[in-house]
Write a structure and sequence with these properties.
six-stranded mixed beta sheet, globular, binds (2S,3S)-3-hydroxy-2-methylbutanoyl-COA, binds nicotinamide-adenine-dinucleotide
Length: 686
């Protein structure tokens, strides 16, 4: 996995461990022995660390986690490099991540190609950079930048790395040769061997700013709620500032050990591979030819259409956005513009960039303008007759090779496809709201959707920076179908005795971004509500009749402060609920938090089992990817199916049986769930 190639007096350590040159055991042995040889061989004056294939070392081998790591350890290798008497230069292309960047930081110099990316993403898999990263990065880029990079986990580009001192030069031409030339310059001009461990000035700056860590804690509190790793990352960086290097390294090890074998890291590691597995469709091979997508169309410029158009624009794909009439088009375009202007005002890009992006959108009220689009995504009202009509129209105006996609949330994609002469080119692309932000896209595969069209949609979604997951046709697909089960229970719980804020609190504390009632208030209680036919049949109807339409009307399940928009529980809602329950003959009782959690999550798990049995989802882990990306299921709990396995399917089934005895109908377990529980198995090992 590692060879030593000599280029005159420069020895090149060549790592070749596809696909991402991870620091597997063989690589560690090769690097260790290579460094020993370099030290011993008098004809060698400098060394370059360079990787074959598509990337520099992308980190530790995640597959080796969870068992003891065999010697040599990477820290020993890094120590050999850093203390080498001959200069060592890292030559970076692709991504230098995690243990890869940590190794590069143990080199004396780093050079990179223009499009290289560098980062410490460990926090995303629930751990911290345990190879000296928390000690070396702040010494190079400063504490503030290191905090941001290590607790955020996002890589930075070569240009930014250069500005922050993380690399010494951006090189052009053949990387390995350029790095060897750089190493010769170091030797020839007698440059000092920069040992990162000895750098002090950036740490001194931070010592003069004692509030720096707590500021950062406050800044990331909302985003990292419930996660353990970010706090340990911060503590390790604090140690870099307050302790000598070797002691800092030991502290990093302790803080790392607290995380590595913990439940969160296990769940997040599982999720890392789940997301990658979701990109594979068993009967659609990697070699499936793709259709070319150079231009897109979006029909409907409402809530979803505008956001979907932004996704294309952000990826540099020109969009034709069509509405029924000018006024609706103008409204839609104004929302898009406002979103971009907000990003610009936050410093994400310039006002010129706003204009450039807006310039990629051609607004129109004529579907004839879709004629040259390679794909059209429909986002009109959720109504089957309307969808069939517009698809028949799209079929007429679009080119023979165009893909026709629907953003429907619930409707039968096969029926929509049948309205066209090209059902093989029709599928669902179910984006989530806000469409320009949420990563999930359920790719709904119709009975007749061709493999080529499916593969093209998957690849396109990735190009848009999304996480696509293939699902089959059924009411609500995977995500919304499971959500509906939770909704049924949430609505019952508040009649039986819980209050909306109890249910929301339990789910929030579980780690979800908000509970079902806060969510209703946000979306509006009047979706699908009709004043004319409303007759107080459901609690929601009663609230709407009282003008409580949700956040937009200042009250819904909660009451909202007109200035701060902060929500608070409302006695009126409490009395509406108890009156409504009384009218239905329901005697309210005390309901525990445990019951709330079980009744909200277990029916989702049960529905997930049905979805698997019906083949609507290809694998249990796909369901988890959907819930993490589309609904904010806490990553550190892996997803609902992983969660089910972690509490044990027998526990779920026993609770279900209990609820069936208590409530009767509606509590039948899915056969797959019962079968696996009886066999003592989980969804993920089935
Ligand atoms: N270990 C093992 N396998 C890995 C891997 C890794 N680190 N990274 C990727 N793979 C596999 C992946 O499962 C997939 O396999 C294939 O490589 C291609 O990946 C001490 C302890 C590098 C940006 O977290 O972010 O260092 O599905 O589809 O989109 O501090 O992979 O084909 O069988 O994602 O081009 C820190 C994780 C480790 C980097 C490439 N490093 N990787 O993206 O391809 S912890 C990471 C990525 C650490 C030290 C600690 C991305 C990528 P298969 P892919 P890609
Ligand atoms: P919306 O009401 O905000 O927008 C729909 C737009 O379509 C309106 O601007 C309307 O003028 C336009 N329209 C209607 N008929 C048209 C036609 N024949 N030609 C051109 N434009 C037409 O609706 P939305 O929330 O954006 O939902 C659109 C679709 O996305 C629906 O199928 C919905 O189920 C789905 N969806 C919505 C959400 C969400 O949270 N809002 C999430 C996922 C999916």
């Amino acid at each position: 996995m590692v060879t030593l190639e000599e280029r005159g007096v420069v020895a090149v350590l060549v790592v070749d461990n596809p696909p991402v040159n991870a620091l597997s055991h063989g690589v560690r042995i090769g690097l260790y022995e290579g460094m020993k040889r370099i030290a011993a061989d008098d004809s060698i004056q400098a060394a370059v660390l360079w990787c074959r294939g598509r990337t520099f070392i992308a980190g530790a081998d995640i597959r080796e986690f969870g068992r003891p790591r065999e010697d040599p350890q990477t820290n020993e290798i890094r120590s050999l490099m850093e203390s080498s008497k001959k200069p060592v230069v890292a030559a970076i292309h692709g991504t230098a991540l995690g243990g890869g960047l940590e190794t590069a930081m143990a080199c004396h110099y780093r050079v990179a190609v223009e499009d290289a990316r560098l980062g410490l993403p460990e926090v995303k898999i629930g751990i911290l950079p345990g190879g000296g990263g928390t000690q070396r990065l702040p010494r190079i880029v400063g504490v503030r930048k290191a905090l941001e990079m290590i607790t955020g986990g996002e890589p930075i580009g070569a240009q930014e790395a250069l500005e922050n001192g993380l690399i010494d030069e951006i090189v052009e031409g053949e990387l390995c040769a350029a790095a060897a030339a750089f190493a010769l310059r170091v030797v020839g001009e007698g440059w000092p061997l920069k040992r990162v461990r000895d750098l002090e000035d950036k740490l001194a700056e931070a010592r003069a700013e004692p509030g720096i860590f707590d500021d950062h804690r406050r800044r990331i509190a909302r985003k990292t709620r419930g996660f353990r790793a970010p706090e340990n990352c911060i503590r390790a960086i604090e140690a870099a500032v307050s302790l000598p290097f070797e002691e800092g390294l030991r502290r990093e090890q302790e803080l790392s050990a607290e995380l590595v074998n913990g439940e969160q890291a296990k769940a997040q590691r599982y999720y890392f591979f789940a997301e990658r597995a979701a990109q594979k469709v068993p009967d659609v091979p990697k070699e499936t030819p793709l259709r070319t997508i150079e231009s897109a169309g979006v029909l409907g410029a409402g809530t979803m259409g505008g956001g979907i158009a932004m996704n294309f624009v952000n990826a540099g794909i020109p969009v034709t956005l069509v509405e029924v009439e000018e006024s609706a088009l103008e409204r839609g375009l104004a929302v898009v513009r406002r979103n971009y202007e907000r990003s610009a005002s936050r410093g994400r890009f310039s006002m010129d960039e706003v204009e450039r992006r807006m310039g990629l959108i051609r607004g129109s009220v004529d579907t004839g303008d879709f004629a040259d689009c390679d794909i059209v995504v429909e986002a009109v009202f959720e109504n089957m007759d309307l969808k069939k009509r517009v698809f028949a129209g799209l079929d007429d105006v679009c080119g023979d090779n165009a893909i026709l996609a629907s953003n429907t949330s619930y409707l039968d994609v096969n029926e929509i496809a049948a309205a066209t002469s090209r059902p093989e080119a029709v599928l669902g692309t179910h984006f989530f709201s806000p469409a320009n932000v949420m990563k999930l896209v359920e790719i709904v595969r119709g009975e007749k959707t061709s493999k080529e069209v499916l593969a093209t949609a998957m690849s396109l979604a990735k190009r848009l920076g999304k996480v696509p997951v293939v699902v089959g046709v059924c009411n609500g697909f995977v995500g919304n179908r499971m959500l509906a089960q939770r909704r049924v229970q949430a609505d019952r719980l508040i009649l039986e005795g819980a209050l909306p804020w109890d249910v929301d609190r339990v789910l929030y504390d579980f780690g979800l971004p908000m509970g079902p009632f806060a969510m209703s208030d946000l979306a509006g209680l009047d979706i699908g509500w009709d004043r004319e036919s409303s007759a107080g049949r459901t609690l929601r109807e009663v609230l709407c009749e009282r003008g409580r339409l949700g956040q937009k009307s200042g009250s819904g399940y909660y009451t909202y402060d007109p200035d701060t928009r902060k929500s608070s529980p409302d006695p009126e809602v409490e009395s509406v609920i108890s009156d409504f329950a009384a009218a239905q003959g329901i005697v309210r009782r005390q309901i525990s938090d445990d019951e709330i959690l079980a009744r909200c999550t277990y029916p989702m798990i049960n529905e997930g089992a049905k979805i698997l049995e019906e083949g609507i989802a290809l694998r249990a882990s796909d369901i988890d990817v959907i819930w993490v990306n589309g609904y904010g299921w806490p990553l550190y709990r892996g997803g609902p199916m992983y969660y089910a396995d972690s509490i044990g399917l027998q526990t779920v089934v026993a609770a279900y049986d209990g609820f069936r005895d208590q409530f009767g109908e509606g509590w039948e377990t899915a056969p797959l769930l019962r079968r696996l529980a009886e066999q003592g198995r989980g969804f993920l090992d089935s």
